[in-house]
Amino acid sequence: MASSFSPLQLGHLQGLQAQLLRRYEHRPLVSCLSGLYGCRWRRERSCRQREDCCCNKLEGVCFALLVAAFCVTLVFLYFWGQAKNDYNDFDWFTFSSLGFWFPWSVVLLVIAAAFFTYVTVLMLLAVCLLSEGQKLYLHWSHKIGIVVSLTFSIAATAVLSDLWSKELTTLLLSFRVTAPFLHVGGVLLLTALSWPVALHFFRMSSRVRRGLILGFYLSFLSALYLVPLGLYSPCIKEVGTLGPPPALIGHRGAPMLAPENTLMSFEKAVETGSEGLETDVTISVDGVPFLMHDQTLLRTTNIQQVFPNRTNMAAATFSWSELQSLNAGAWFLSSDPFGTAGSLTAEERQRACSAVGHPYRDTWIHRILEVIHNESSINSSQVLWLPSDLRSLVQELDPALQQTSGSRLSPEDLQSNNIVRLNLHYSDMSTHSTSAYAAGNISTNLYVVSQPWLFSLAWCSGVQSVTTNNPQLLSSITAPLFLMSPDQYNLVWILTDLLSLLLIVLVFVFHRWRERGLAFCSGTKVSLDNGTYSKFKTEMSDIWSVSSINSQAERTSNLATVTQH
């Protein structure tokens, strides 16, 4: 037997259905979001009607600029964050241009992070407002902030790409280790965006707009799902195929722990696990070899105080007695280029300040061989000879030297010149080339590798050694970062995509069900009016009206009866 409902019960049930389907409005939250985004602290009208758009044309352009600023600032922040390996080079480049030392690389990183954080907050506010079905009204001050953030990021990227083009290669190298994790992050981001996309898709009346929004979203999503098919990372390899870690060679010693090219720096490098030392030799005007990387003495000595009129003269034009009058360690404590001078003990700080002159080890051709053979305990077989000038003469005078080349020639050409080691910039890293050289008994050394992710990439690529400023950190790494087997990565990839697809389907199904339910309730004229449904109120009014008529008829009947009596 079919159950029957009274008008009162039916109205109550329909009101309950409408309440369940109705999007719950977080009024205090929406007011706060609108206030932060557009300085409108009263709740704005929701775009409830199907023909409503989330914003007008001007606000649509501003939202597009916001999305562009988010993407550009993210790219620049990632780019500059991955360039940390070369911050010291950048700071000394600015030193040579400005004449004073300052950690501009860190300042640039802080500015990039601040702009990205600001734009990201605005982006989150906009997405939350769209998820609540609110119209967008961006305050004019935020519009200026977006333009400034976008302009700064584009200009900084362009200038750095022009002056420091090798860092673009660093950016590409970083993708070899971070791409698997960036893929997972991108999938999670697009999955989260499915909520506002689905909401506005089902609320739009224009089929063209609906097709565009769904087409763009599904295109990006499909491309992101398939990215791993073209992804390559040397750190995704079978278990047991990883070779030994690259040997560490101290770059001018351990320059993060002591003044570069000093005996103290070399000792620190050996103490922290370096198996070799890299240095640069200059010969004084009176024939004494000393260690110096720069063309001038300005950066690493107190020449401005001792010889103020000769600060820009070449280091090779000074005599040994003049060089001995300079201090080669005080600059390290005063400028603290790596932020590590505070780790030195009081005794070590005193030793750095009193490091007068430069210790020497090599000189030019005959002189260098004389020093090695007669004035040092270094065996010729321990020396890596890098200069290409008069290489044949050097080989004739001392064939035990390890001939090293800085040019990426073919293995056959290198073997014909008796080259046993390559010394390449880390941007030239290649797993295939390293393997090909190793097959010809030619080992590969990369310079300058100081960050763990770059060291991990070199390790996975089979590189035999790296020159580093940071042996104290790299020597503590026991396994490459981001290392995983192909099976593990395939599992992560497939599970991430499937879970994302499932969640997106559920979100779209939910919004479709809710919007259809809302449309049905709107067709039956069920709407909220101060917390009471109007249909329910109408039915209650009819009931009270009928009751009033009946009561009035009863009173009239009773009055007639009394009159008769």
Q: What would you note in describing this structure?
A:
With 565 residues, the chain is of the alpha/beta class. It is 57% helix and 7% strand. It has helices at 7-21, 27-38, 57-82, 87-98, 104-131, 140-163, 166-203, 207-226, 263-271, 303-306, 320-324, 330-335, 346-353, 366-374, 391-397, 411-416, 431-439, 452-460, 471-474, 486-523, 534-564; strands spanning 247-251, 276-278, 281-283, 289-291, 384-385, 402-405, 421-425, 443-447, 465-468, 528-529, 532-533. The strands form 3 sheets. The protein has a 7-stranded parallel beta sheet with strand order 2-1-9-8-7-6-5. The protein has a two-stranded antiparallel ribbon with strand order 3-4. Strands 10-11 form a two-stranded antiparallel ribbon. Helix 1 (7-21) packs antiparallel against helix 21 (534-564). The longest helix is centred in the N-terminal third of the chain and has 38 residues, at 166-203. The radius of gyration is 37 Å and the shape is elongated. The two termini are 50 Å apart. The relative contact order is 0.10.
Key features of this structure:
565 residues; alpha/beta; 7-stranded parallel beta sheet; two-stranded antiparallel sheet; 21 helices; 11 strands; 57% helix; elongated; GP_PDE_dom
Spell out the blueprint of helices and strands.
Elements: H1 7-21, H2 27-38, H3 57-82, H4 87-98, H5 104-131, H6 140-163, H7 166-203, H8 207-226, E1 247-251, H9 263-271, E2 276-278, E3 281-283, E4 289-291, H10 303-306, H11 320-324, H12 330-335, H13 346-353, H14 366-374, E5 384-385, H15 391-397, E6 402-405, H16 411-416, E7 421-425, H17 431-439, E8 443-447, H18 452-460, E9 465-468, H19 471-474, H20 486-523, E10 528-529, E11 532-533, H21 534-564
Parallel strand pairs: 1-2, 1-9, 5-6, 6-7, 7-8, 8-9
Antiparallel strand pairs: 3-4, 10-11
Helix pairs in contact: 1-20, 1-21, 2-5, 3-5, 3-6, 5-6, 5-7, 7-8, 7-18, 7-20
Membrane topology: Multi-pass membrane protein
InterPro entries: GP_PDE_dom (IPR030395), PLC-like_Pdiesterase_TIM-brl (IPR017946)
Keywords: Glycoprotein, Hydrolase, Membrane, Transmembrane, Transmembrane helix
